[in-house]
Amino acid sequence: PAAEIGVIGLGVMGANLALNISDHGYEVAVYNRTVAKTRAFMAEAGALSEKIIACDTLEALVDAIRPPRPIILMIKAGDPVDQQIAALQPLLDRDDLLIDAGNANFRDTIRRFKALEDSGPTFLGMGVSGGEEGARHGPSIMVGGKRDSWQRIEDVLTAISAKYEGEPCAAWVGEDGAGHFVKTIHNGIEYADMQMIAEIYGIMRDGMQMEPAAMAGVFAAWNDGPLDSYLIEITADILQTQDDESGKPMVDMIVDAAGQKGTGRWSAIESLRIAAPAPAIEAAVGARSLSAMIDLRTKAEAVLGVPGQGEFDLGATTLDLLEKALLAGKVAAYAQGFSVMAAASKEYGWHLPLPVIARIWRAGCIIRSRFLDDIASAFTATPDVDNLLLTPEFAQIVTDTDRALRAVLAEAIRKGQPVPALASAVAYFDQLRRSRGTANLIQAQRDYFGAHGFVRTDAEGEAHGPWHSEE
Ligand code: NDP
């Protein structure tokens, strides 16, 4: 057999991944459930089709790959993956390597990894980010499973991955579900980052009456500063794009109801489950859900009205303050995402390498940015730090942006601008930096109504209050 690797699933992602692999000189065998899609794919592959073997059956695919066979599954996540594994299992050898590259829930990946551990084929769960463009020209790749399985396909995966200043954005991050977990948190951070950008856009649009083209200029300028990132870059591009049909700014012609496929929500759920708070991610997931309730929002606007109308104005430096506030919010969101990974790492025994994760997110993926290079440096310089905010570099950013974040939030709240994710950032900072918070009262309440006990400030062990002494 000629092929070095196989790809199952020629949808948007699989087709581009297969082209990317063949473009790097690897012979690749491909299969898609609907054969017509395979034909169409080959017809469009052009010269690359010489390095691609199209297979109409799973048997033909397996026969076309040199054993031990690495096969990438790039199909719809969920039941289809279990069905595909079941169909492949009788055809594959123990040493063959099945790599699920879809957006699997990491719990499913753990389950599949364990189910195949003894019988084979060997299983890897691989998170891929970067959308269609990334899949074709270099995605960010987060791999979970046995380290020696990763080493078997390390060459091809690093070859097809994005590069940040020459360094490949592909890495093994831990056992079983670690790769898909890291991808999930990537998407959670992506939600928070996008939501905060949208909140700033809302202030510019509704509070400052800026036209999209003017906003585009501001975002483009910000893309040369500390906010430099793919998401800021595409925001600038989106805002200056005209709708061909109406001649109006494209962004003004789009219904304000955000879709979501679940990975952002999974990261919020997981953060709650392991008690590693990620309020910015939660706020972003909640904001998307509320955005979809257009009927309810329309009714609420009629009943309650829009509060605090009037110009959002912080003087001549308003735009600079917005830039700093967005940076502050971003720091909170990323600190939270990384702290969820640190907690999950302990819980699942993954030893997630946080600096490596920051490094493979610097290019290829949706949250790619220079900022992630700073995070990688901070985690490398201060390993085992409890939270990104405690590294000297990020503590400095929090200090430098603090006044701007507060000024922007105070004005936004006064003017009735919804800023759920940005507001969660200041609440997170303020709660985190108080060594004595207010949970003493919570503990008193819990003890009062449920005899749950508390720890005294002047003694060890469980104590109770004299709440009901006179009864
Ligand atoms: P598409 O909808 O373009 O393609 C879906 C693919 O899954 C098709 O090849 C389809 O085959 C196959 N499929 C669906 N159900 C089954 C089944 N029961 N058995 C066998 N094959 C099946 O999806 P994408 O390429 O966008 O996504 C693929 C995976 O990658 C998903 O898990 C997605 O979440 C993930 N992903 C997507 C990203 C994106 O930007 N689009 C980014 C990162 C990950 P058929 O042609 O026969 O229907």
Automatic annotation (TrEMBL):
The lineage of its organism: Bacteria, Pseudomonadati, Pseudomonadota, Alphaproteobacteria, Hyphomicrobiales. It is an enzyme of class 1 (oxidoreductase). The keyword Oxidoreductase applies. Residues 179-468 form the 6-phosphogluconate dehydrogenase C-terminal domain. Pfam families: 6PGD, NAD_binding_2. GO terms for molecular function: phosphogluconate dehydrogenase (decarboxylating) activity. Belongs to the 6-phosphogluconate dehydrogenase family. Homodimer. Catalyzes the oxidative decarboxylation of 6-phosphogluconate to ribulose 5-phosphate and CO(2), with concomitant reduction of NADP to NADPH. PANTHER family: 6-PHOSPHOGLUCONATE DEHYDROGENASE (PTHR11811). It catalyses: 6-phospho-D-gluconate + NADP(+) = D-ribulose 5-phosphate + CO2 + NADPH. Its EC number is 1.1.1.44. This is 6-phosphogluconate dehydrogenase, decarboxylating. It comes from the Bacteria. Pathway: Carbohydrate degradation; pentose phosphate pathway; D-ribulose 5-phosphate from D-glucose 6-phosphate (oxidative stage): step 3/3. Keywords: Gluconate utilization, NADP, Oxidoreductase, Pentose shunt. The gene is gndA.
